[in-house]
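Researcher: We plan to redesign the surface later, but first we want a full-length starting point. Tokens attached.
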């Protein structure tokens, strides 16, 4: 709240000083009350205006917050988009597992077959066709991944707009105990998952580590063991 002028107090102090030396009559008391009321009226009006402005700003912020929450569409995200993205990811996992089983099963049959058997070639051709058909899962999977990415971009756009509207900043210390334990486990066990190209530790870094580590054979010696 903005500071308010205290000039009205000077009038009251001056009045008290002039009457302090002599006897104070009822008229003086009434006069002091009049001066006090007159002096403080401006003060209270200024406070009223300041409080009104503060409350108006708060009301405006709350209204803007409600509008931004509406634009965030939390019900649509919770009830439609996020569940749909989860279903797409489940379908991707199932399709990948099915294709992998088909490919590995066909490959095992080919490897276990007898090349001297007259029916071997027909069997190999049939299993190759199964492998080719199983590999087509990547097309459907790509379409499902595109849907998930679209949902993530939609959520990112909505959240970014909301954060910018309310001038939000990241706060520390709001992780749950489960999240803290999971983060600590990842940090302790270096569980960063598969790295993207250009990220993480490269083979040259691993080779350099073995070359410099005491008591460990150079990388060339290790490679020679597998030749």
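Model: Full-length starting sequence:
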């Amino acid at each position: 709240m903005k500071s308010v002028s205290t000039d009205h107090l000077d009038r009251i102090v001056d009045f008290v000083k002039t009457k302090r030396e002599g006897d104070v009559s009822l008229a003086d008391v009434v006069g002091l009350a009049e001066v006090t009321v007159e002096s403080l009226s401006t003060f209270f009006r200024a406070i009223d205006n300041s409080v009104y402005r503060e409350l108006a700003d708060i009301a405006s912020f709350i209204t803007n917050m409600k509008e931004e929450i509406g634009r965030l569409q939390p019900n649509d995200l919770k009830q439609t988009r996020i569940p749909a993205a989860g279903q797409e990811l489940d379908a991707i996992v199932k399709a990948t597992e099915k294709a992998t089983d088909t490919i590995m099963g066909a490959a095992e049959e080919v490897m276990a077959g007898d090349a001297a058997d007259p029916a071997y070639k027909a069997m190999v051709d049939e299993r190759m066709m199964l492998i080719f058909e199983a590999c087509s899962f990547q097309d459907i999977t790509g379409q499902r991944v595109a849907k998930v990415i679209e949902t993530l971009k939609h959520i990112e756009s909505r959240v970014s707009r909301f954060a910018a509207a309310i001038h939000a900043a990241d706060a520390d210390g709001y992780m749950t105990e489960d999240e803290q334990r999971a983060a600590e486990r990842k940090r302790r066990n270096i569980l960063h998952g598969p790295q993207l190209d250009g990220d993480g530790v490269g083979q040259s870094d691993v080779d350099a580590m073995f070359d410099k580590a005491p008591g460990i054979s150079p990388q060339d010696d290790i490679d020679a063991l597998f030749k």
